[in-house]
UniProtKB/TrEMBL annotation:
The chain crosses the membrane at residues 813-832. GO terms for cellular component: plasma membrane. It comes from Magallana gigas (Pacific oyster). It comes from the Eukaryota. This is Cadherin domain-containing protein. It is found in: Membrane. GO terms for biological process: homophilic cell adhesion via plasma membrane adhesion molecules. Keywords: Calcium, Glycoprotein, Membrane, Repeat, Signal, Transmembrane, Transmembrane helix.
Length: 899
């Protein structure tokens, strides 16, 4: 039966064995007493026996060694092979054998064959005992039991250890016990014999270097030993066959402990520790000490040297720095120059002076962070003087016929140290048909004929290997090349402004130009954008003066755009220059304009506010969006400032004497700033605004029955305040009730007898109605009564008789005299008051009135209301009493009659 044994040496290291538990020293397999099985011996020669008893009595069940064979030698002499077979699949392999030779005289004896350690066969669970006797059979057996299996054959023969034989092909037999016994023992522990140990190396050790070889041993020399490294590491390799420890990679400095274990076939172990100490190899500076020179006029940062410092260990990075400088300065420093190599540098503008310090010694230190090595670096300062030009600046004349590679000038310079000097240059124009050579010679590099530039400035440098001096200018003038004119005051940074309606032909801008070729004749032309600009601006092709057009006014409102770009072109006949300026046209407020010098409207008289009419003004204003306000200067009229509608400012009555029916006024229109005027003729038509009126509601006249036909018996004159057509009145009488037309009225109002009244008796009264009508159809009526008096009585005078005149009455003379005295007193009082209180108005008014009365006929009259006979209606001017107080008078407008 197989047993699986797990041997765990360390927690983390387990090896599984199927070789069975360790054998106990003294245990055995086979017969307890081989002598008791001395019954029979086979007679064959070269017989091999396999004792694969099913009960396991001849099959090992532990792992260990056979230390002694014991058997019974029944008869015969010769060699016996005591064998151990191990199943291998269906076959068996020969694990080992001990040979014992039975010599004469030892027949019929029980023999104990004790094995030296070196000869002991290692066994495992499952191994089977076998016997091979090359000659006659010596070991006896006994026929016994019903099982006790075994196999015998002569076809195995003599085999070397490790060979195999397929015992399954040999028939298994029963009922034999062989006189043989194998005593086992547990075997010895293996050991690593040369550990613990310590090996030392460097971090420069190459990969694969053999560091140590383990030696292992086991007293059981036939034992199978397995050695492993139980430490997990990628730094070292361990070969379990050669037992060599090698470096698996570049080793970092430090100490590593490696554990090893050796295990034998039965799982017994031995351990050992190998300590590997890796030490650092310092870096190496390969290229110090070293010397270098630096010129004293060094200005740029400069790399002086690249330090070649290396370290054999790939784990180490070498850094280099300047440890100290003598004399002390901080102008030197190190930094990575390329890859991992450090350079020594001098900083920009180090202010070196040969006379102050002409050498520096730098101690450069390189370290791998464990060990530091140093080296010396010497910097020697050299004196330097800059080269000096000796014939620049300069100017040369060349012709345009100069061919390629013609030397035109040789620049010379000197250098105090006699350094090799190098020249180079830049040029004012590209392409530049000149080059300078290191000899200082300046040559044409092309035929100048194909160039149009009249002159070049060559900016020349000289370099002494240390200092670049320059530039100094060599001016090359190509004497016979036309040079283009140059516009000197264009382009402009801002537009030129021109107002609309500017005067014609006024100057806008003077184009200026220059030309090296002073004898050239120049023509100045311009194009305009938009091209319409050409109609409002012109350019004088001779003097370059840009002016407004001499014929076309600039009207801002009609422009497509308010800016005009003038592209100016100045030509000398061969070459030209162009540039442009922008003219910005400014809008100017323009006055509104009346289309006519006179407008007419017609209205009618009326009260203040009455509409007269709206003149059809045809005002235009060139400015877009301008607004107009209208006004009129006649006080009689108002004008709506927006609609221009005219209304009466005060009552307008044509019936008032002197009131004109046609007034011409000045009208104005304003855009808020500018004004235009025109005339407005206002015609006011008369209207029939007054009704004719009899002076009284009724008239009474007397007439004798024999009154002569045609005699005037009274007056019924009526008045009409309208002047003109509407003031024309006519009279009619309604005498239908009288049955005849007895009376008539003349156009002057005289009431006269038309037919004799003889048919009427005395004392009779006749009534009729008089009507007055004006031409507008307005009427008034009055009742007229005609009394026919008793024939015996004298007819009374008619009431149409007038009173005596004012001055005819002696009573009035006295009254008037008194009134004149009072009036003079009042006048004196008014004059006094006016001077005292500064109020001249009353006086002025009064004086005005007084003067008017004297100098002209008044338009408005003030007449005292006093009794008046119905017959008396007209009062002569001279009859007016002087007014005492103005308030005593009320206005009464009346038509005056010429005296
Ligand atoms: C540095 O010095 C070593 C030894 O002289 C040489 O082999 C190596 O090529 C050098 N490295 C450089 C970059 O010069
Ligand atoms: C070059 O030509 C100009 C004009 O002809 C003259 O004034 C000048 O002196 C010349 N320069 C040289 C270096 O010949
Ligand atoms: C002229 O040479 C100097 C020194 O070699 C160089 O630094 C400089 O850039 C060069 N200038 C031109 C214009 O080639
Ligand atoms: C109208 O204006 C003209 C010119 O200013 C002036 O002579 C005239 O008297 C004015 N007419 C009236 C009615 O104001």
């Amino acid at each position: 039966m197989h047993c699986t044994l797990i041997v765990c040496t360390f927690l983390s290291f387990c090896v599984s064995f199927s070789n069975g538990a360790a054998c106990k020293d003294g245990d055995h397999k086979g017969e307890n007493d081989p002598k008791s099985k001395d019954n029979d011996v086979d007679t064959a020669t070269g017989l091999s026996v396999l004792l694969d008893r099913n009960d396991g009595k001849t099959v090992f069940d532990c792992c260990g060694f056979i230390k002694q064979w014991e058997f019974y030698a029944k008869k015969n002499t010769g060699t016996v092979h005591f064998q151990v077979w191990r199943p291998a699949g269906t076959s068996y392999s020969l694990v080992g054998e001990n040979l014992y030779t039975v010599t004469s005289g030892n027949e019929d004896k029980e023999i104990k064959y004790s094995l030296l350690t070196a000869n002991r066969i290692g066994i495992q669970s499952g191994d089977v005992i076998g016997i091979y006797q090359p000659g006659s059979v010596i070991v006896s057996h006994k026929q016994e039991g019903s099982s006790n299996q075994y196999r015998t054959t002569t076809s195995v023969g003599s085999l070397s250890v490790g060979s195999t034989f397929d015992w399954s092909a040999v028939t298994q037999s029963n009922n034999r016990k062989y006189a043989i016994r194998a005593d086992v023992t547990n075997g010895n522990n293996p050991s690593i014999t040369n550990l613990a140990a310590t090996v030392t190396g460097t971090d420069a050790t190459p990969i694969g270097t053999l560091l140590f070889t383990l030696t292992v041993a086991d007293a059981d020399t036939s034992d199978t030993l397995t050695t492993t490294m139980t430490t997990t590491t990628s730094l070292f390799n361990f070969d379990s066959t050669s037992l060599q420890v090698t470096s698996a990679q570049q080793l970092p400095s430090g100490t590593t402990t490696l554990n090893f274990q050796v295990t034998d076939a039965c799982g017994s172990t031995g351990t050992g520790t190998l300590t590997i100490v890796v030490t650092n190899v310092p870096p190496v500076i390969h290229n110090l000490p070293y010397n270098t020179d630096v010129t004293e006029d060094q200005t740029a940062e400069l790399q002086l040297y690249v330090i070649n410092a290396t370290d054999t260990s790939e784990y180490d990075t070498v850094t280099c720095s300047i440890q100290s400088v003598s004399p002390t300065t901080s102008i030197f420093f190190t930094k990575i120059a390329s890859g991992s190599l450090y350079g020594i540098y001098i900083q920009a503008y180090p202010s070196l002076s040969y006379d102050s310090v002409n050498a520096y010694t730098l101690t450069v230190a390189c370290t791998d962070s464990k060990d530091t090595v140093t080296g010396l670096f010497h910097v020697y300062i050299t004196r330097n003087n800059a080269p000096v030009f000796t014939n620049l600046q300069a100017s040369v004349n060349v012709t345009s016929k100069t061919p390629t590679s013609t030397s035109i000038y040789t620049v010379t310079s000197s250098d105090a140290e006699g350094d090799q000097l190098y020249y180079n240059m830049t040029c004012s124009s590209t392409p530049c048909p000149f080059a300078i050579y290191h000899s200082g010679e300046v040559r044409s590099t092309d035929s100048l004929e194909s160039y149009t530039v009249a002159g070049y400035d060559l900016f020349i440098y000289v370099y002494d290997g240390t200092t670049l001096v320059g530039p100094k200018t060599l001016t090359v003038i190509v004497t016979d090349i036309n040079s283009a004119p140059i516009l000197t005051n264009l382009p402009l940074s801002s537009p030129v402004s021109v107002s609309e309606n500017s005067a014609l032909g006024v100057s806008v801008f003077q184009v200026s130009y220059s030309d090296i070729d002073t004898s050239d004749t120049h023509v100045i032309l311009a194009t305009f954008s938009p091209s319409s600009g050409g109609s409002i601006f012109t350019v004088d092709s001779t003097n370059g003066l840009i002016t407004t057009s001499s014929t076309t006014n600039i009207n801002y409102e009609s422009l497509a755009t308010s800016t005009v770009v003038v592209n100016v072109h100045v030509s000398d006949g061969t070459a030209f220059a162009t540039s442009s300026l922008t003219i910005s046209i400014m809008d100017v407020n323009e006055a509104p304009v009346f289309g006519k010098t006179l407008y007419q409207i017609t209205g009618t008289e009326g009260n203040a506010g009455t509409a007269v009419g709206t003149p059809g003004f045809d005002v235009t204003d060139p400015d877009n969006g301008a607004t107009q306000k209208y006004s009129i200067d006649c006080p009689e009229f108002n004008m709506d400032q927006t609609t221009a509608a005219v209304t009466l400012a005060a009552n307008y009555d044509l019936d008032v004497t002197g009131t004109s029916s046609q007034v011409t006024c000045n009208v104005s229109v304003s855009d808020g700033e500018l004004t235009a005027t025109s005339a407005l003729q206002v015609t006011i038509n008369d209207v029939n605004d007054n009704t004719p009126s009899f002076g009284q509601p009724s008239y009474t006249f007397y007439a004798q029955p024999n009154e002569a036909v045609g005699s005037v018996i009274g007056s019924i004159v009526a008045t009409d305040a309208d002047v003109g057509a509407f003031g024309t009145i006519s009279y009619t009488l309604d005498q239908v009730s009288l049955g005849n037309e007895y009376f008539g009225v003349q156009s002057n109002g005289d009431f006269y007898l038309k037919t004799g009244l003889t048919t009427f008796s005395s004392g009779q009264t006749l009534s009729l109605t008089a009507t007055v009508t004006d031409s507008g159809g307005l009427t008034d009526t009055a009742a007229v009564t005609i009394v026919i008096p008793e024939s015996t009585t004298a007819a009374p005078t008619t009431t149409t008789d007038r009173h005596v005149t004012f001055l005819e009455d002696p009573k009035n003379i006295a009254w008037l005299s008194a009134a004149v005295v009072i009036l003079c007193g009042i006048v004196c009082l008014m004059v006094y008051q006016s001077f005292r209180f500064g109020d001249y108005s009353r006086l002025a008014r009064w004086c005005q009135r007084s003067r008017s009365k004297k100098l002209q006929k008044p338009r408005n009259h003030y007449r005292r209301t006093y009794y008046q006979s119905p017959r008396v209606r007209d009062i002569p001017e001279l009859e007016y009493p002087s007014p005492a107080l103005e308030s005593d008078w009320r206005p009464w407008r009346v038509r005056t009659h010429e005296l």
